[in-house]
Design a protein that fits this description.
By secondary structure, the protein is an alpha/beta fold. It has helices spanning about 1-25, 30-40, 45-55, 70-85, 100-110, 125-140, 155-170, 190-195, 265-280, 315-325, 340-355, 370-385, 420-425, 435-445, 455-460, 465-475, and strands at about 115-125, 145-150, 175-180, 200-205, 225-230, 230-235, 255-260, 300-305, 330-335, 340, 355-365, 390, 395, 400-405, 410, 415, 425-430, 450-455.
Length: about 475
């Protein structure tokens, strides 16, 4: 009896100490703090294990390191552009974008996201089209191929891509392939060895020090980037696997958004890749000018913006909020998950209540059940505020896209959820071009042919069981 009382007392004291640590030392968001305290209270021992895996901050902020010369070069370019903007001497190819100087100033000042204006962009919404284009560009590569994906699978597409890289590696092209260790946990070791044997460098991001035990599991590299010869870049939502070609019966057709870029923004994609690669690999890439040789006669303004748990600011989220608050006519959003924090939730609500036409499109099926039900909880608030909500029925909607007033847009890897804003390493292209915005709007409107509209009256008719699942999912959403 005394032993039992001792164990209970120890667990209670331990939980109190851990709770105080979370409150006073970790300095978490208040909602996340309360969520963890509830987990520790209701499942004391198991909750502590969950906290060790999912709750701790990264201990080292200096995850991505620069060599002195390269850091000085980037900082000099950033400072030069900042001075031009602050003095009013900044030259815009498209004067109509001057109203968004505060948005690209935000990213430039706080994320070193240089604003380039000479980019040509192709939009892909179908995986077959995207990967056919990518494989064609890989086939034409002469100097180097850099790839970075969250999920890489050893299926038909994965093997097809690997074979293309093996051919280029044997030709003497430098091939570097970075995958996330958790997201690509099913990637065949045999396929990795085959690529390495051909001369390709292949590395995993945040691999476990002890097999199967990874205390960085909660901080994943969700970025998807490709840079070919320093001239062509890809960024967006597609991972590598047959399901992204619509070949998985569970998901059906896979609707995503991805960009192919030619222009100065490729230099910024390259910088992001080099930073991530040098963190994961013992074979660092030197910051050499040959990586940055990209020219275009395009006219799309663009910034490549990164965020992650190493950042002081939730930069992509701040960009989303700034875009939404600038809207005068409409905001169109496509996202597989809609779990905003209070700041973003308020921004969208205010836009709705101000008469802005806010349309949100989400999938009709979950790939993560808790996230799905948490999404429905927040969608209810959007409906009440006056947003129009569409449920995509053709297959699975995985696009991460926001477009505002036929002027500006964002496409990339960040979902509208706490995980993307605070826990994962993400990257988005912020786009300043009316023609490109219109293309994205046209794709949104095409998708409206394959949706059902969720009205507030229909939402109110959901069952008690669904309401219960929504409540539980929303309660723990800050730590999902």
């Amino acid at each position: 009896m005394e032993l039992t009382q001792f164990i209970i007392s120890f667990v209670l004291i331990f939980n109190i100490i851990l709770s105080l640590t979370i409150i006073f030392l970790e300095r978490k968001n208040a909602t996340a703090t309360w969520a963890w305290i509830m987990v520790l209270t209701f499942i004391p021992i198991f909750g502590f294990i969950l906290y060790l895996i999912f709750g701790r901050k990264l201990s080292n902020k200096a995850i991505f390191t620069w060599d002195t010369k390269s850091k000085l070069g980037v900082k000099t370019a950033v400072q030069h552009q900042l001075r031009e903007i602050e003095s009013g001497d900044f030259f815009l190819k498209d004067p109509g974008m001057s109203q968004y100087e505060d948005l690209f100033y935000l990213h430039l000042r706080n994320n070193d996201a240089i604003y380039s204006q000479d980019n040509s962009v192709n939009v892909f919404t179908d995986g077959n089209h995207k990967f056919n284009s990518l494989l064609e560009d890989i086939d034409q590569a002469t100097d180097h191929i850099h790839l970075q994906y969250y999920i890489v699978k050893s299926d038909h597409l994965g093997n097809r891509l690997a074979e293309a890289l093996i051919i280029k590696a044997k030709e003497g092209v430098e091939v570097r392939f970075l995958y996330d260790d958790l997201g690509s946990r099913t990637l065949s070791r045999k396929l990795i060895r085959k690529m390495r044997d051909a001369g390709a460098d292949v590395e995993g991001f945040f691999p476990p020090l002890i097999p199967k035990v990874n205390f960085k599991i909660n901080h994943r590299n969700h970025r998807k980037l490709v840079i070919i010869d320093g001239k062509i870049g890809y960024i967006g939502g597609f991972n590598i696997g047959d399901e992204y070609l619509g070949m998985d019966k569970r998901f059906g057709y896979w609707r995503d958004t991805h960009l192919r870029i030619v222009g100065s923004a490729v230099k910024n994609l390259q910088t992001r890749f080099i930073l991530d690669w040098n963190q994961a690999s013992r074979h660092d890439i030197e910051y050499d000018e040959r990586f940055y040789d990209s020219t275009s006669d395009g006219n799309t303004g663009m910034q490549i913006v990164s965020s992650g748990p190493d950042s002081d600011w939730e930069q992509i989220k701040h960009g989303y909020i700034k875009m939404i608050m600038s809207a005068k006519e409409y905001v169109y959003i496509q996202t597989p998950y809609f779990i905003p924090d209070e700041s973003l939730l308020d921004a969208v609500k205010i836009a709705c209540l101000s008469g802005v036409d806010v349309r949100i499109m989400i999938p009709n099926k979950p790939d993560h059940p808790f996230v799905y039900w948490a999404t429905y909880s927040y969608i209810g608030e959007m409906l009440k505020a006056g947003a129009t909500v569409y449920i995509y029925q053709k297959g699975f909607l995985h696009a991460k896209m926001i477009v505002v007033d036929n002027k500006i847009a964002s496409v990339g890897t960040a979902n509208i959820d706490v995980r993307s804003f605070r826990l994962n390493f993400e990257v988005n292209a912020f786009l300043y071009n009316e023609t490109l915005a219109e293309i994205l709007v046209d794709e949104f409107k095409k998708d409206m042919e394959d949706v059902t509209q969720l009205t507030y009256s229909l939402y109110q008719q959901r069952s008690t069981w669904i309401r219960f699942k929504e409540s539980i999912a929303r309660l723990i959403s800050p730590i999902l």
